[in-house]
């Protein structure tokens, strides 16, 4: 919805838009009785420090880190600190 309001109509516009980073946020999604913390980063280069907030939330909530979903703007997927890092298009 935010992209629509900003008149961003396709991915190529989003890739160069000055508010791209602000459009990617952190979420906690509730599905039934399960919570899914999600960290979204628009950058194509992944840094392990991107997992800090998710790790903190998991410890605070008493949740396993495998329920966390770090998502970034790159192309690869892998496991790190008990979390599966995913590219945005694989979510």
Structural class: alpha/beta
Radius of gyration: 14 Å
Please indicate the percent range of residues in DSSP E strands (runs of 2 or more).
25-35%
| Average pLDDT for all residues | 83
Largest sheet report:
5 strands, mixed
Number of helices: 4
Number of domains: 1
Q: State the low-pLDDT regions, or none.
A: none
Distance between the termini: 18 Å
Order of helices and strands: HHHEEHEEE
- What is the spatial order of strands in the main beta sheet? 1-2-3-5-4
Shape call: globular
Instruction: Give the tally of β-strands.
Output: 5
Helix fraction, binned, reads 25-40%
Can you walk me through this structure?
The chain has 91 residues and is of the alpha/beta class. The protein has one domain. The protein has four helices and five strands; from the N terminus they run αααββαβββ. It has helices at residues 2-5, 11-16, 20-23, 52-61; strands at residues 26-31, 34-40, 69-72, 78-80, 83-87. The protein has a five-stranded mixed sheet, covered by helices on one side. The longest helix has 10 residues, at 52-61. The model has no long low-confidence stretch (mean pLDDT 83).
């Amino acid at each position: 919805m935010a992209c629509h309001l900003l008149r961003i109509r396709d991915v190529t516009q989003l890739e160069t838009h000055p508010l791209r980073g602000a459009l990617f946020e952190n979420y906690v999604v509730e599905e039934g009785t399960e919570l899914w913390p999600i960290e979204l980063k628009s950058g194509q280069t992944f840094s392990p420090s991107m997992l800090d907030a998710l790790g903190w939330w998991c410890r605070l909530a008493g949740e396993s880190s495998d329920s966390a979903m770090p998502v970034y703007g790159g192309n690869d997927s892998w496991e790190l600190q008990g979390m599966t890092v995913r590219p945005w298009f694989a979510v």
